[in-house]
Design brief:
This protein is of the alpha+beta class. The protein is built from six helices and five strands, in the order ααββααβαββα. It has helices at 5-8, 22-32, 52-56, 65-68, 82-92, 111-124; strands spanning 36-40, 46-51, 75-77, 96-101, 104-110. The strands form two sheets. The protein has a three-stranded mixed β-sheet with strand order 3-4-5. Strands 1-2 form a two-stranded antiparallel sheet. The radius of gyration is 18 Å and the shape is elongated. It starts with a helix and ends in a 9-residue tail after the last helix.
């Protein structure tokens, strides 16, 4: 069985609204211990993504998310193998992918999630033994 994005994604997605302030998003990220929030409108349409890097670079906390978010969102299907997610992250130089189903955000997967797959796989590989002499 190959590991899919669905196996490692976070399905309880915390969203930001385009009208939220940078201060609000900073507090939300800190309290939830997360580093990226998909941005959606009231109809759950995905508009962008805002990361901790975006809000860390913005001094004025009264600015709105729509001003600092990235409106190019890298997405992946839940059924995709984690290797596909890793390739997309590397190719697009991002740390988070929004997991979508029929255009709706159903999860988020981070580079840390993919590292956990690698760490678990490494535990299952027997240690290399030096050859007998």
């Amino acid at each position: 069985m190959s590991v899919t994005v669905a196996h490692v994604m976070t399905s309880k997605v915390v969203f930001a609204a385009p009208g939220h302030t940078v201060d609000h998003v900073r507090e939300l990220m800190a309290s939830k211990r997360i580093h990226a929030l998909p941005v959606a409108d009231l109809n759950s349409k995905l508009l962008g993504i805002v990361t901790s890097g975006d809000v860390a670079r913005r001094i004025d906390g009264t600015r709105e998310v729509r001003e600092v978010m990235n409106d190019t969102v890298c997405i992946v299907r839940a059924t995709a193998p984690v290797s596909e997610a890793a390739v997309r992250m590397r190719k697009n130089r991002v740390h988070h992918l929004v997991v979508t189903d029929n255009g709706r955000a159903i999860g988020i997967v981070s580079a840390f999630d993919l590292l956990s797959v690698l760490a678990n796989a490494a535990k299952k590989v027997p240690e290399a033994r030096p050859p007998d002499r």
